[in-house]
Amino acid sequence: MATKKYHPLSRFIFMLLLLLFLFCLFAPCMADIRHTKIRPKGQIRVNKPSLMFIDVFGFTKTGRVELNVSHISFSNHPSHLNLSHQIGFFLAPRLSIADGRLELDSRIDSKTCYLQSDFVKVLYTFNFEGGVFPPKKLNLEFSVTDSDEYILYFENCLYPQLKSSMDIHSAMYNLDPKSGRHNYLSAGKNYLIGICFIFSCIYLLLTVLFGIHSLLHGGKNYNGVVLFFAVYKLTSFIVELAYLYYMKHIGYSQSLVSVSLNSMLGSFGGILPLYIFLILTALGWPFLKQIVHPKSEVMGLILLRLTMNICYKVIMVIPLPGAFIRLCIVDTIVSHICDIYCFPLILFPIMKTTRYLLHNRPVEEEAAAVFRKVKVFRQLYFAVIILNYIYFFLVTGFDIFALITKYQWTGVLVEESTIFAMYLFIVYKFWPMTQNQIFLVEDGEEESAAAEALKDLKTYDFFYRPT
């Protein structure tokens, strides 16, 4: 009895997704209750303020900020220093940073002290009046009545002439108007719980239907791919539900951070490998293997995009104000440069070989079925590119949803709806029924049929033009 063989791409993608799953499982997750330690750095030769990112949160009109500061200590300082309003905590509106009114980057002006800016909300400044140092411990609570997304910073404008050291326990939350309970979930994320629940039910239903179909009718390679994607999304939404629940009620979570939702709008490009994975394994692998496999461009494409997404996850937890923004921009630029480079690796062979097949239309049944797959695969691949970049320019590129705190959830809804629509389209287009002409070829015969269809193609050079 012959054993079923799985092509290398399926194993490769499965291993990468498994590693990414384990990475998110054991990695520390972000929370809205944070412990931050401020310690003096080594010898500094440049006199510039010390600015430290602590947290970011979307407030409603009942917002609260709690700061429990302990082990406070300051170094000796010259007597001529003006210590008034030079060291403390402030909230910077995210919108002010985005539109350029407030540039939190000490490289531009090394003497800038943001505690004295009109665009920030100063929470607390340490008092050194009368030569008396502040107490060793502080318990502070502040009200935020302006609905907006704010970034909490600590700044020492006298650094390095006056060095500071302290432990900060910060919590930012909104009060429920009816019950008065603490809601540690940012204002723009409250609707995500309902969105995750709805999509969890949808993908659970699809998982059950596809699972029953595979058991009753036997599995083609395509059935396994469709079922895998449904299970992947179902797991992602269930885990995200647990994460959001704990975040909302207790302010932190030890559960798995969802692979698909946690990065919000910035990682929409991360769904592209899933599209490619679904399309290539379900449709085009036997065909593309004859064209680009000798140079392993397909492997490189998938590896490159998944690596970029993992890097983005790492960048998201870097607690540096200026570097955080710059690294996100660099990640976006590099990610799309990789896309621009990698798309032709598949598109050019597809276009070239399709033209060849149009001039030399195969007559064998198996080769003709492969040819039908090729044409549909080309249409789908173009649709993926257009869909991804239309979304990028409308949502990610212009930050339409992200700049308005209470509407941040709409970006996730659009993203997940797009994924679901594309998924249903592929399932409908290639549902393996007997009357579907695309699936007349058995899985084990596809590679030989593709090789037969391309046997007269003398070269795989991108600039080859058949006569």
Automatic annotation (TrEMBL):
Source organism (scientific name): Aquilegia coerulea
Positions of the CAND6/7 N-terminal domain: 48-174
InterPro entries: CAND6-7_N, GPR107/GPR108-like
Signal peptide as annotated in the record: 1-31
Membrane-crossing segments per the record: 191-212, 224-246, 266-288, 300-318, 324-348, 380-404, 410-431
Name of the protein: CAND6/7 N-terminal domain-containing protein
Keyword Magnesium: no
Keyword set, alphabetical order: Membrane, Signal, Transmembrane, Transmembrane helix
Pfam families named among the record's database cross-references: CAND6-7_N
A GO cellular component entry from the record: Golgi apparatus
